[in-house]
Design a protein that fits this description.
The complex is a heterodimer of chains A (813) and B (137). With 813 residues, chain A is of the alpha/beta class. Helix content of chain A is 55%, strand content 9%. Chain B is built from five helices and no strands. In chain B, helix 1 packs across helix 2 and helix 2 runs antiparallel to helix 4. At the A-B interface, helix 1, helix 2 and helix 3 of A face helix 1, helix 2, helix 4 and helix 5 of B.
Chain lengths: 813, 137
């Protein structure tokens, strides 16, 4: 392989150079020349000019050239035992390269051929980009030829296409990894690109091959099916009209063979395709119908040209609403199918025929004898859960069905399916999909779309991304926008200047809402920055924090501030008071299905995956509830009551607790710094069995909140007053409270047990009520500043009794 | 001596290339195309299906099993027989018409092959006829 070289004078090289001479216009010109010469020739002959014979004779030369071009030059075949690069190099490249090509020359040629266009659009590797980094040294070509040869062999290709050559050029470049990183690609992606390009070529070739589907007398020995045509969907006919997918999937191949085997043998002529929604059950039925219609397919004679009809349960039920009508209609349809002798019935969503409920009718008593007799070929499609449910109720039915399990497609297969389907979506939506967008659609659908299996969910996201295309190009950003808009999550990394600014100044912004607790604010801010910069562990929640400390020190306030600043509002908080989950049976409430309890944790996160989960008073929850939360904290997933996996990878989990609050206060009063007692305090919580170590270990950070001192409480007062002023700004009124009055508010409002919580109530009483009275009495108007001094405040809060009352009310709350 | 034109290809290669392809791969390709067209025609007229199902009831009309009184069964038998006869007649027509089309196609294909073989000589024949003063049409 080391002596691979390029021979400029080989016959194939010569032919390739001739080939590129023929453009579409030149071919048309040859047709015109032929017609002109032959007409002129015969005119001359009829006018008895012998030279007319030469015109007629030479007109044939044009025809011969056209034939030669179409028959050989256009798609120059590769040699059977290739030795040199020119034996296998694609004609479009070979015809354009010079005697001693350089990588840059090749790159330029790639830019003007279809393979180059393909990579420019689908991968963003434009010609100018390629030319920028490739060398202009002809000695570098040897490595490129060798690399191309290697890729050709690895991808089981017969020729070196422009796509292979482009990949080889990139791989042979010294800084190829950086280059690919710049495009968010790796070498495997380029290989995948080659396969995609080849696949599109194969699709075009497939349409050129004449199809043999039985001819005009194919169905003459079989009966008419007017009812089936009315209520069913003739898949075989659709395939005949629109063609079929060329994609051969290994995962589906096995199921397809099983299906053919079941219907080829004598015995129960039925099959039930069992698999989750979106797994491709209907695709298998389509592939099966397509195979039966192909005269060249290797299938038993008794299956050839049989037609597959898809029966839509809901349409049947809608057309036969009365009691007994559906049974009658179905019997007529099945009799018609049996009499026709060439029909295979496929019941999609077959469970609708086997269970009683809204939109479904149990007609297993009718279907059972037909299935048992096995005279009519039938295919059923349903998901595993429904299949098992039907099996529980009607084990006899399950015994007579031939089960075929359909597994979800893996990543490689899903991406191949997506590339295959891209042709249809592109045609329907007038867009072009970039390769990166397809991979992103796979990744994001895997993570965010529930209730569908692969490849269904990836295809669904891919299709909806078309609506977010930029200049008709579906990019990674289009896919992210599609998922962000439909699911209301943030999946893109921070890109806007405003968001970057917010993230960098997160601590300052949070402190506009709350006082001190530097450590807590910092850990939360760091977690968010990591997440939005794209450096966090994607398999876990954005951050998991346990806030410990006495009441009224800002634990819940920090969560609210975060939701306000980052998530855009406090409605993004999914708040669970864990004192409502004190029994073992409460686990079911925590993971209930949305249809049964829309307030369950799993239902809320499923609906709004980009949220802040606040678990208040976590220490009060039952140990089983805490165990249920472990997987969520560890892996960012939780299973609901139906065993569905719910992603918690875009949430911040904050659990709060005032366990050991008295002990913490005691330490602080004894003059300890909060950092110095952190570990000791946590150990005490474990030793006193308030928390299990395995639970505490699941959190990214355990943050201790210390009680606020007087100075900090003054700041709390300031924040509350700012809030009041913000509200009053609508009426253009401002409240100003003197320092002495503020100090008095702190003095009255502070309670060692309740922290800063009663202060809000005190301010409400002393400030808000005063403002309200003044507004109503008409003493103040727009533009006024209401001055509140110590005298005003003490007048209202003049006795300790009043303050005590307020504190008591707070306690009650 | 190898002569290269300005465009970078050997002019001699052009003539050798076209003629060697014409009587080599080009000829095989022509035969292959004719074969494919014939197969397509056979497939279109479904000759094999028509022969194998020659006496099958046409469109399964009156083809079901009838049980009951002997009179009903005899009537069903004759109905079925009629359906078979109709089927056989329709099929005979299609087979006959199909065979004619295929036969004509075969003749045309043979002519195509002959023309293909002599086509490259047309310029020479044209020149000779010009030189000898042509032939009267």
């Amino acid at each position: 392989m080391s002596d691979i070289s390029f021979n400029y004078t080989s016959t194939r090289s010569e032919k390739a150079r001739i080939s590129i001479l023929f453009t579409k216009n030149k071919i048309n010109l040859l047709y015109v020349a032929f017609l002109t010469m032959i007409i002129l020739g015969f005119i001359l002959i009829f006018r008895e000019f012998p030279v007319g014979w030469s015109f007629v004779g030479f007109s044939i030369v044009s025809v011969m050239i056209i034939e030669w071009y179409n028959g050989e030059l256009r798609h120059l075949k590769t040699l059977k035992n290739p030795k040199n690069i020119d034996d296998v190099l694609s004609c479009e490249i070979l015809g354009r390269i010079s005697k001693n090509p350089t990588p840059r020359e090749i790159a330029k040629i790639i830019g003007i051929v279809p393979g180059g266009h393909f990579f420019a659009i689908r991968f963003g590797i434009s010609n100018s980009f390629l030319c920028e980094f490739v060398s202009n040294d002809k000695d570098d070509m040897k490595e490129i030829w060798q690399e191309s040869w290697k890729i050709m062999k690895n991808t089981k290709n017969q020729k070196i296409s422009s796509a292979i050559l482009l990949t080889a050029i990139i791989k042979s470049t010294p800084n190829s990894i950086n280059l690919l990183n710049h495009l968010q690609l790796d070498e495997d992606d380029l290989i995948s690109g080659i396969k995609w390009y080849d696949h599109l070529h194969d699709l075009i070739e497939l349409h050129r091959i004449p199809k043999r589907t039985g001819g005009l007398a194919r169905d003459w020995s079989f009966g008419w099916t007017p009812l089936l045509n009315r209520f069913g969907q003739n898949i075989s006919q659709q395939i005949g009209t629109y063609g079929v997918s060329l994609l051969k999937l290994i995962a589906h191949d096995e199921s397809l063979n099983q299906l053919i085997e079941i219907f080829s043998k004598k015995g129960r002529q039925n099959a039930v395709l069992v698999g989750p929604p979106g797994v491709g059950k209907t695709e298998i039925v389509n592939a099966f119908a397509s195979k039966l219609l192909d005269a060249t397919a290797d299938i038993p004679h008794q299956l050839k040209f049989r037609q597959v009809f898809l029966l839509d349960a809901s349409s049947l039920i809608a057309n036969a609403p009365g009691r007994g009508q559906l049974e009658k209609l179905l019997m007529q349809i099945l009799n018609e199918a049996y009499d026709a002798k060439n029909i295979i019935i496929c019941l999609d969503n077959a469970q609708l025929f086997f269970e009683e409920g809204i939109g479904s009718v149990d007609i297993s008593n009718i279907l059972m004898p037909i299935i048992q007799a096995g005279n009519l070929r039938m295919i059923f499609a349903m998901d595993e859960q429904r299949y098992l449910k039907i099996g529980q109720r009607n084990p006899e039915l399950i015994n007579v069905l031939n089960r075929i399990n359909i597994s979800p497609a893996n990543q490689e297969e899903t991406i191949a399916i997506m590339q295959d389907k891209s042709v249809i979506y592109e045609f329907q939506n007038h867009v072009t999909y970039m390769y990166q967008s397809i991979v992103e659609a796979y990744r994001l659908s895997e993570r965010y779309i529930h209730g569908l299996a692969m490849p269904g969910k990836a295809l669904s996201l891919m299709e909806s991304s078309a609506h977010y295309s930029e200049n008709s190009l579906v990019t990674v950003e289009s896919v992210r926008q599609a998922i962000e808009k439909t699911l209301d999550v943030k999946v893109s990394n921070a890109s806007s200047e405003k968001e970057k600014e917010t993230l960098l100044n997160l601590e300052d912004l949070i402190h506009k809402h709350m006082v001190n607790q530097e450590k807590a604010v910092q850990v939360v801010s760091d977690a968010l920055r990591r997440a939005r910069a794209g450096v966090r562990n994607q398999q876990r929640p954005i951050g998991t924090f346990l806030f410990l400390g006495p009441t009224g020190v800002g634990k819940t306030e920090l969560s609210k501030a975060l939701a306000d600043i980052y998530y855009g509002g406090q409605d993004r908080i999914i708040r669970l008071d864990m004192n409502e989950y004190v029994n073992k049976s409460d686990v079911n409430r925590l993971i209930a299905d949305a249809s049964e309890n829309s307030n369950s944790l799993t239902a809320q996160v499923m609906k709004q995956p980009f949220s802040l989960v606040l678990l208040d008073e976590i220490e009060k929850a039952h140990p089983d509830v805490l165990s249920t939360l472990l997987q969520m904290l560890d892996e960012g997933i939780m299973r609901d009551i139906n065993n569905r996996e719910i992603g918690f990878r875009d949430v911040i989990v904050i659990a709060t607790s005032n366990a050991g609050a008295d002990r913490l206060r005691e330490y602080i009063e004894r003059g300890y710094e909060i950092d110095s007692i952190h570990d000791k305090f946590i150990n005490e919580l474990i030793e006193t069995k308030q928390f299990l170590p395995e639970f505490l270990n699941r959190f990214d950070e355990i943050v201790l909140f210390r009680p606020l001192n007087e100075k900090e409480l003054l700041k709390v007062v300031e924040l509350i007053l700012d809030e009041i002023n913000k509200t009053l700004s609508l009426q253009k009124i401002k409240v100003s409270v003197t320092t002495e009055a503020r100090e008095y508010l702190v003095k009255v409002g502070y309670d060692p047990k309740m922290g800063a919580r009663p202060i809000r109530r005190v301010i409400q009483k002393a400030v808000e009520n005063t403002v309200a009275k003044k507004l109503l009495s008409g003493d103040v108007g727009p533009g006024s500043i209401i001055e509140i001094n110590l005298e005003n405040v003490s007048k209202i809060l003049d006795s300790k009794i009043t303050a005590d009352e307020l504190i008591m009310k707070s306690n009650e709350k | 001596m190898v002569y290269y034109s300005l465009r970078g290809y050997n002019n001699g290669m052009f003539l050798v290339g076209i003629l060697s392809w014409w009587y080599g791969d080009g000829f095989s390709r022509r035969i292959q195309l004719i074969k494919e067209r014939l197969i397509s025609s056979i497939d279109f007229f479904s000759i094999d299906i028509l022969l194998s199902s020659f006496f099958a009831p046409f469109r399964q009309i009156s083809a079901g099993n009838v049980s009951g009184p002997i009179g009903d069964q005899i009537r069903a038998f004759f109905d079925k027989l009629l359906s078979r006869i109709v089927g056989a007649i329709v099929r005979s027509f299609v087979i006959f018409f199909g065979l004619i089309v295929i036969f004509l196609q075969l003749i045309f294909s043979l002519l195509t092959i002959i023309v293909w073989l002599i086509l490259p000589t047309f310029p020479v024949i044209g020149l000779i006829l010009t030189a000898v003063g042509g032939v009267s049409l």
